[in-house]
Structure formats: structure tokens, C-alpha cells
């Protein structure tokens, strides 16, 4: 059985533009089928093989993408990383640790997407940076350009090799900001810059072939130790300088990294996951409570607020993301029965920082 596994994963770590990537089957798998009636282990192995997916992922080197690729690989799915820099991707996914993963630069994306069961689109420049007119343009274009390319490659593929599902990231910035409103998937879009970005992002994804199931995941603030907003907040608390950002009254719609990865993972294989799904925990909190809980878990005070002026000096116009906020509920995920591992921020922070 180990020989069969080695054969199925014996792809090179890169591909050429003209190379047709074979589907993951071999003579060994034919032999495995022949013995499947002899014992329960063989039956189980064959059943697992039937459920294996070939998934192409953009944004695989990002905060969410890294964990998603690790999860897919650990579950024996075939992963094709669509990147602009093979060398950067190889540093994050070295062949000695991830044998069999395909890493492809843009000229090779077509060969990867054609024949994949699914595509996950996570690419986009991070918004948690100081905005300038040039940066704002790149924030939008980085999302629209990659999404448009992925959609065109899916649409150009023949029916028999076309992916069956596209899981495309978007953001809760779609709703705009408010201290009083409650937003769910039925809420209208806001009127600010981020809402505009999200509308165009989603519209581009929805141009995909009508026979492809589309799940649009509107992602909130993702909490994890090695990236995202929390990685920037922890050093402040370590220096006893942590506290609410701005007034602290703004809503903070968050989700644990494991939960957003699990939500995307479920959307890949579950046909019920279609349309817009908010990728946020069921219990958003005021930012003051978030900081209080973080300070408690870290054993640090959280009473000293970060002045709005100081925040704008660091992030410029991008400060509106944390200064305004919104209360977003994952109504669709709850309706689908998605099992949130971390529904409460205190438990999420404990798990991250323990």
C-alpha cells in the first residue's frame, strides 16, 4: 500500500507550461481495487481514494492559505499551488516536507486548473497596511486580476476537466461599517472603499460557468498566532501598551484561523455550501472586550487606549477598518450546521496563546 501512495504522489515540485498534469491514478490503484473485497482495511482505503480531491489554490502562501494547504495535504488530497513566485512558495512548502505538491507560476496555472476538482481563490494584497492612492489601487487590482484570471481559465476548460466548485474569498468589508446595525448575508452592501472592492471582487467570481458551484466566503478578522491582526496586537500587550483602538465601542467580527480553514474545507465538498457565506464567529464582540480578553489571557493590562490620531499615523486611511467596524453574524453557516470550534473569543485566544 505504501508503494501505491508513493506512486500517486510522485509528481515533480514544478511543472512546465506545456506539461499535462496526470490525474492521480495508477496501476497500483487498479490492484488496490481488486483486493478491496478481501478485507475492511482495503475497502476503507478505496473509499478514501474516491473522496480525494485535486484542489488548485491561489493565495496559498498567505495566512489562511498556508493552513488550508497543510490541512488538505494532511488529508491526502492533491494540492496545486498557483503562485507568482515559485521560489517563495518552495520556501514555505519545501519538497522534503510536502512531496507531491505541485507549485505553478502563472503561465502554468491553466494546466493546474484544468483537471482539478476544485479551486480555492484566496489571493489579494493585505489591507492591514498604510493606504496611499497607489496601495488602494493595488488592493483592488490584486483581487480582481487574479479572480478574473482564475474564472477565465475555468470557463475555458472543457466540461470533462472543468472544476466543479470555486470557493472564492471576499470580506465582511462588503457591508460597510456601523456601531448599531447587525449584518448577515442578506444585508445590502455599504458605500465605502472596501465595500466597493468586495462588490467588484464578488461580481468577478460570479462570472464563472453556471455549471460550477460557487461559494463566496466573506471573511472577518482572522485570529491566529502567526499572522493577521492578532500578530500586530500581541507585541503591544507584551510591552504593557495594549488597549482599545479608538473608542473601543466598535464591533469586532472575528473568526479563529482553524474555523475559517474548516469552513473553506467544508465548502469544497459539501454541495449545500453555495452562494454567500459569512466567515465570522457567531459571537462578535466590541473591540474593548476583545482587548480585555486578550489582556486577561496574556496577563497584561488592557486599559490604556490607543489614540485614534496615533492609529491613523500608522495606518493612514486604512485605520477605518478598526476604528469603525461592523457586527456581522454567520447566519448561513449556522443554518448549514457548521460546527464552530471556537464560538467565543476568550476560548479562541486561550487556544492561540496557550
UniProtKB/TrEMBL annotation:
Give the NAD-dependent epimerase/dehydratase domain ranges.
56-272
Every DUF1731 domain range: 306-352
The protein depicted here goes by the name DUF1731 domain-containing protein
This protein's species is Nyssa sinensis
Amino acid at each position: 500500500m505504501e508503494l501505491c501512495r508513493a506512486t500517486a504522489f510522485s509528481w515533480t515540485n514544478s511543472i512546465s507550461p506545456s506539461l499535462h498534469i496526470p490525474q492521480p491514478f495508477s496501476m497500483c490503484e487498479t490492484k488496490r481495487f481488486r483486493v478491496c473485497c478481501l478485507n475492511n482495511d482495503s475497502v476503507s482505503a478505496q473509499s478514501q481514494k474516491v473522496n480525494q480531491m485535486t484542489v488548485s489554490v491561489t493565495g496559498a502562501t498567505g495566512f489562511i492559505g498556508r493552513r488550508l494547504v497543510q490541512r488538505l495535504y494532511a488529508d491526502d488530497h492533491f494540492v496545486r499551488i498557483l503562485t507568482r513566485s515559485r521560489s517563495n512558495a518552495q520556501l514555505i512548502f519545501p519538497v522534503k516536507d510536502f512531496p507531491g505538491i505541485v507549485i505553478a507560476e502563472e503561465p502554468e496555472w491553466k494546466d493546474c486548473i484544468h483537471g482539478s476538482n476544485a479551486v480555492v481563490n484566496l489571493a489579494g494584497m493585505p489591507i492591514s497596511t498604510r493606504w496611499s492612492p497607489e496601495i488602494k489601487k493595488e488592493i483592488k487590482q490584486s483581487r480582481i486580476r487574479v479572480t478574473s484570471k482564475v474564472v477565465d481559465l475555468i470557463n475555458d476548460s472543457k466540461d470533462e476537466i472543468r472544476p466543479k466548485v470555486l470557493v472564492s474569498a471576499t470580506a465582511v468589508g462588503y457591508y460597510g461599517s456601523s456601531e448599531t446595525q447587525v449584518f448577515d448575508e442578506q444585508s445590502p452592501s455599504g458605500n465605502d472603499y472596501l465595500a466597493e472592492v468586495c462588490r467588484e471582487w464578488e461580481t468577478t467570481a460570479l462570472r464563472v460557468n453556471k455549471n460550477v458551484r460557487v461559494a463566496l466566503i466573506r471573511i472577518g478578522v482572522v485570529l491566529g498566532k502567526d499572522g493577521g491582526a492578532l500578530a500586530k496586537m500581541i507585541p503591544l500587550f507584551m510591552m504593557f501598551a495594549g488597549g482599545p483602538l479608538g473608542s473601543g465601542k466598535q464591533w469586532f467580527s472575528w473568526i479563529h484561523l482553524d474555523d475559517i480553514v474548516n469552513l473553506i474545507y467544508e465548502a469544497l465538498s459539501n454541495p449545500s455550501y453555495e452562494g454567500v457565506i459569512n466567515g465570522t464567529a457567531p459571537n462578535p464582540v466590541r473591540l474593548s472586550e476583545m482587548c480585555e480578553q486578550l489582556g486577561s489571557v496574556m496577563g497584561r493590562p488592557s486599559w490604556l487606549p490607543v489614540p485614534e490620531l496615533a492609529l491613523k499615523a500608522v495606518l493612514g486611511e486604512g485605520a477605518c477598518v478598526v476604528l469603525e467596524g461592523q457586527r456581522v453574524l454567520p447566519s448561513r453557516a449556522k443554518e448549514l450546521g457548521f460546527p464552530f470550534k471556537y464560538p467565543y473569543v476568550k476560548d479562541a485566544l486561550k487556544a492561540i496563546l496557550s
